[in-house]
Design brief:
Elements lengths: L9 E8 L2 E8 L2 E9 L2 H12 L5 E6 L3 H10 L5 E6 L7 H10 L2
Parallel strand pairs: 1-4, 4-5
Antiparallel strand pairs: 1-2, 2-3
C-alpha cells in the first residue's frame, strides 16, 4: 500500500516514543504534518487542542503501548466527528504507520 491516506477526513497516528507523543497527519492523500508533544498533562492538552482544531473529521490511531495511550484515547474521545482506535504495537508502532493503519480500517 502506498503512503496515501483516505480523503474527506484526516487520518492521524499518535505513537508514544521517548517520553513524547509523536503525531503524523494525513490529508487529501498525503502526509502533511508531523508534530511532537510531551506526555505530561500540558503536552496532552496541546495535542488534544491541535486535533480538536482540525477542520475535518478525524480517524485517530493511538499506539497502545502504555497506560498513557489509554488516557490519550479517553481525552480525545470528546472531539466531535472523530473515531479513536487503540492499536497493538504488533500491528503498527510508529505514528506514520498508525496513520496508514487507520486509513485502511473500515
Amino acid at each position: 500500500m502506498s503512503g496515501h491516506c483516505l480523503q474527506q477526513l484526516f487520518n492521524v497516528g499518535v505513537a508514544i516514543e521517548n517520553e513524547h507523543y509523536r503525531l503524523s497527519l494525513c490529508e487529501s492523500g498525503q502526509i502533511v504534518e508531523q508534530r511532537e508533544f510531551s506526555t505530561d498533562a500540558e503536552g496532552q492538552s496541546k495535542l488534544e487542542q491541535f486535533i480538536g482544531g482540525l477542520k475535518k473529521p478525524a480517524r485517530i490511531a493511538i499506539g497502545a503501548t502504555t497506560t498513557a495511550a489509554v488516557s490519550m484515547a479517553i481525552a480525545l474521545s470528546s472531539i466531535a466527528h472523530s473515531e479513536i482506535f487503540l492499536v497493538s504495537p504488533r500491528i503498527a508502532a510508529q505514528s506514520i504507520d498508525l496513520a496508514r493503519y487507520v486509513e485502511r480500517t473500515v
